[in-house]
Amino acid sequence: MKRKQTEKKHHWGESHPYLSRFWRRFKVAWRHIELTRWLILIVLTVFMGVSTFYTIKAKTADVGSLKASFKTVTEVMDRDGKKAGSLYSQKGTFVELPQISKSVQNAVIATEDRTFYSNLGFSIKGIARAGLSYVLHHGTITGGGSTITQQLAKNKLLSQKQTFGRKIAELFMAVEINRVYSKKDVLTMYLNNAYFGNGVWGVQDASKRYFGRDASQLTTAQGATLAAMLRSPSFYDPIKHADNATSRRNLVLDLETQTDYLTDSEATAAKQEKLTITNTYSSATNYRYPYYFDAVINEAINDYDISESDILNKGYKIYTSLDQNYQTQMQNTYNETWLFPQNAADGTMPQSGSVSLDPKTGGVLAVVGRRGEHTFRSYDYATMIKRQPGSTIKPLAVYAPALENGYHYDSELTDKDMTFGKNKYHPTNVDGTYLGQVPMYEALAQSRNVPAVWLLDQIGISKGVASVEKFGLDVPEADQNLALALGGLQTGVSPIQMAQAYTAFANNGKMTTAHFITKIVDATGAVIVDKTKTESKTVLSQKNAETMTSMMLGVFNEGTGKNAKPVGYNVAGKTGSTEVPDSYPGSGTKDQWVIGYTPDIVTATWLGYDKTDEQHYLTSSYIAGIFKQEMTNILPYTPHTSFTTEDAASIASENGQAGSDNGDGWLDDFGNSVGDTLNNAKDKVNEWYNDVKGLFGQ
């Protein structure tokens, strides 16, 4: 036999001479430089490095405040420093271990971690299973094998992503938790943090939800039922899947006999107990203003780099600009379904978003992000959408810069059926009529399109673009054309962006930065965010801001916003809409807007479908009724500060004639005649100039 093996090796060496020589040299080199020792050293060094890294991570994880975090809740404070509510978090009603029945304690230990009271926070067998799973599943941990302490570390201190690195971190965190806390504390935290399905966290609330009693009163069978749910709260839901829950409960009872928590007779008796559901649980209503609170969380994450987990669980006090009266009234308006269009034939709901700002500070006073049932941090149509603003852009892109370039509230604008530039851009008025000449304030109030485009052409597109950008809105190069006058923005805007822009008109020319949070204080009392100082930017003069307000008062008094005017209040602002393509089966709009303000509040409201197509568009105007209702409800709670100017139409009337000064007799008539002649000549020159531009392709 030995001779055959020798002959076989000799044959291999002859057939692979290069490999044979390499192998002999490799063995000599290995022995010469003692590679085994180096390999051991490298492995130990890597092990020490990894251990050091995760030890430091565990030591800096604020484990010492872990139990306290179960009892603290992040509070949201309103503009007056009063508590407005609490944020969502994975917290049920906290109870100490003596208030939790032994039946559920024993069932959980028997099921989840039999060596709980003797282990160091981790299980060698569990680690071995995790390692094997890592190899078998090509570098992915599939779960299982974690002790109660490791599960607590994962749920409260780490992400839920299943990776080998997270598993190592979980191990070191568990060791640190085990060092800092007693076993009773660990079990208490785990049972108060466990998820039991149907939106219920913690054993106390689960006991109320499923059995109508406190956790201290659970029977053996009930304790086993709750323990059974930990593996899969949905699959073992005793409400929806009673058979699954009963089967798993009985298995848990068997496990309790194996761990000597129950005798066979006690387990048999518990199995005979009928599974009866009694619900006496009522969820906390502290998330009172869901869209405002969602926006607060988003701002803390996006602007201040605070994680969602920290926001929800670290017991912050977040001070905001919220006015609870305004917010309640805005929410009440959105609860009035009769104000909104009916759902489309396929059940799709027309959406809407509305936001109110304090023009003096930019603080968000109230917000509703969407219609329908709220889901946590869902898409918000008040702060997230990007839709074409329609005619609400005219004050920013046309009329404000026109005032800066020498025009007056009563300057005569051309209103004729005409084309502009090389592309023969041909805007039309919505009503299909043309007045020839129209004073600026009337063109704005009635939202006439041609005069707005004509005026932008007169002052120059570049000045209109610069004005819009001063108001905080980006205008891409592709949108830098005359269509800007009518809201032709490819990217679009959100209600909060438009509300911020309009703060300049309500605040004497100073635009303030929109924000929800004014200050964040941590659980120790330290201020970690301070935004109490108002951020503002002057975008037009006080005189021009006042003139703009005088013209926009006319929108609600005699213009396109008459039906949106709140009862008993003067409001300035602008309406807007965007039309659907002619190819649609009927006329209608994609977007409807109203932006209105007083010296105390700016409100922007949008209505439309999430996605517009031939089956999903607005066939009638609803936005006026929505805006009127919310402002009629909100304005009684405001300070009732009066405007310092009148409606431009009233000013013109007091001056005797639109577009003229007070005067006498033939001198006024002569002046008006000369003015008309000059305006007509100017129109002829402008038409000629546009034709020439078209010929030269400019």
UniProtKB/TrEMBL annotation:
Reactions catalysed, as given in the entry: [GlcNAc-(1->4)-Mur2Ac(oyl-L-Ala-gamma-D-Glu-L-Lys-D-Ala-D-Ala)](n)-di-trans,octa-cis-undecaprenyl diphosphate + beta-D-GlcNAc-(1->4)-Mur2Ac(oyl-L-Ala-gamma-D-Glu-L-Lys-D-Ala-D-Ala)-di-trans,octa-cis-undecaprenyl diphosphate = [GlcNAc-(1->4)-Mur2Ac(oyl-L-Ala-gamma-D-Glu-L-Lys-D-Ala-D-Ala)](n+1)-di-trans,octa-cis-undecaprenyl diphosphate + di-trans,octa-cis-undecaprenyl diphosphate + H(+); Preferential cleavage: (Ac)2-L-Lys-D-Ala-|-D-Ala. Also transpeptidation of peptidyl-alanyl moieties that are N-acyl substituents of D-alanine
SUPFAM superfamilies in alphabetical order: beta-lactamase/transpeptidase-like, Lysozyme-like
InterPro entries linked to this entry: Beta-lactam/transpept-like, Glyco_trans_51, Glycosyltr_51/Transpeptidase, Lysozyme-like_dom_sf, PBP_transglycosylase, PCN-bd_Tpept
Upper taxonomic lineage: Bacteria, Bacillati, Bacillota, Bacilli, Lactobacillales
Organism encoding this protein: Lapidilactobacillus mulanensis
Protein's UniProt name: PBP1A family penicillin-binding protein
Residue ranges occupied by any Glycosyl transferase family domain in the UniProt entry: 84-254
Domain Penicillin-binding protein transpeptidase: 355-629
Signal peptide: none
UniProt keyword terms in alphabetical order: Carboxypeptidase, Cell membrane, Cell shape, Cell wall biogenesis/degradation, Glycosyltransferase, Hydrolase, Membrane, Multifunctional enzyme, Peptidoglycan synthesis, Protease, Transferase, Transmembrane, Transmembrane helix
Residue ranges of the TM segments: 35-56
The keyword Cell membrane belongs to this UniProt entry's keyword annotation: yes
